[in-house]
Amino acid sequence: MKALTASILFACLSTTVVAQSNYKESSNSFAKYTIKGEFKDLENAKKFIDAAYKTKRDSSSTKNNILRAMVYSSLAYADSTRKLKGDKDHIDASIDAVNRIRQKDRSHYENELNYVNQNLIAAYIYKANKEIEKNEYEKAYNSFLEVERLGSQSEDVLRNLAYLSAQAGKTEEAINYYKKLIVGTEVNALTYISLAKLYKTNKDNQSYLSTLQKARELYPEDKTILFLLVEAFAENKSYQAITPIIAEAINYEPDNIELYYLAGFSNENVGNIAEAKKYYRKVLDLDDNNYDANLALGLIHLNEFLKDKNNLEAQYSAQDYLLKANGIKPYAENALKGLALFYETSDDQEQLDRVKTLLNQLSNN
Fold first, then answer.
1. Largest CB tally within 10 Å, which of 76, 183, 208, 282?
2. What integer is the mean pLDDT of 181-196?
3. Which whole-number Å values give the CA distances from 91 to 29, 157, 172, 178, 334, in the listed order?
């Protein structure tokens, strides 16, 4: 019995000595790696810490887990192609080792744990960048979530989380991240535009508009914000809001027929008839055969003629523009109705009958 007990004790001591030797070899190799940065030293550190991590007792040892976490977190970044294989990915092995360290022991290893943390952050960022290259936005988003969980709260991390959550279709998450960005940091116009577009995706039109208006205050010379505002006001039929800013939009695109027409239409709707005429005529300067501008001018002059039948200029202008519109689109109902009212007011029965015949044909088809 004494011989058996001695034999067991010797075996335990032998195992302990071997484990301690492996730990020491790993520690020495890792120290060399931190000084010289040679990958072979890190490879040796992994080999020896793996050997020192065989039993349940080994894997519960704080010093083993600290060293293992440091080695594997270094590999997580340095061995990005995963040349060295193991039962777990380097990141997972490092996190597993950290999780095995007792809470009461952690205060004694703050520098070592900070080292592990920084390596894991770098590894996750590298991983996310590779996922972005493959358009794997949800995976990249999850990688940056780990970066955030590890304590990195930089503007770059927040910006990446905002962008990637939007790309992954996580609209609510993206809105929250962009809101944090514009509140807590100095951001560019694109950040506001991105947030506004997310609100639009979410069909939150009020937040979409208010975000653009805030962006306009901060970046009054940004063309994209201006054009998005003009478009939003047009969709909402907020013509009173369009008239003060439409000229600025036209300055950016002086040959944009749609902008000139919108300027004319907006001014007409708010009662600025002289301005409306000016913009409609500019449309015709660019495209003489524009149906909408000819019709608009025809109807404006017709309205003036209806108010004053002695206004010969209005009479002739109404006739010219309405006939032009009718010539461009012979069967367009609005132009025909305008002509019918014109001929009725000017007592031209023959032309009135002709136009009414066409309108009747259209209504019967």
1. 76
2. 91
3. 20, 19, 29, 29, 70
- CA geometry: angle at 94 spanning 92 and 96, to 5°? 65
Average pLDDT over every residue of 309-321: 96
Q: Locate 189 and state its tokens.
A: 């116009």
User: What is the C-alpha to C-alpha distance for residues 307 and 325, in angstroms, rounded to an integer?
Assistant: 22
Q: How is residue 141 written in tokens?
A: 């988003």
For residue 163, which of 197, 134, 130 has the smallest C-alpha distance? Answer: 197
Average pLDDT, the chain: 91
Q: Report the distance separating Cα 326 and Cα 170, nearest Å.
A: 51
The pLDDT of 191-205, averaged and rounded, is: 96
Backbone angles phi, psi at 290, to 5 degrees: -75, 115
276, 285 contact by CB (below 8 A): no
d(CA 21, CA 15): 10
**Cβ partners under 8 Å of residue 192, min gap 6:** 182, 211, 212, 214, 215, 218, 219, 225
Cα 289 to Cα 257, 284, 318, 335: the distances in Å are 12, 7, 16, 14
Residue 65 has pLDDT above 80, yes or no: yes
Question: In this structure, how many other beta carbons lie within 10 angstroms of the beta carbon of residue 147?
Answer: 23
Extract the tokens encoding 233: 């006001």
Q: Cβ neighbours of residue 213 under 8 Å, at least 6 residues apart?
A: 229
Nearest CA among 19, 29, 98 for reference residue 53: 19
Is residue 286 within 8 Å of residue 256, measured between CB atoms? no
Contact, 193 vs 225, CB < 8 A? yes
Once rounded to an integer, what is the mean pLDDT over residues 200-226? 96
Six token digits for residue 33: 């790696």
Model confidence at 267: pLDDT above 50: yes
pLDDT at 7: 38
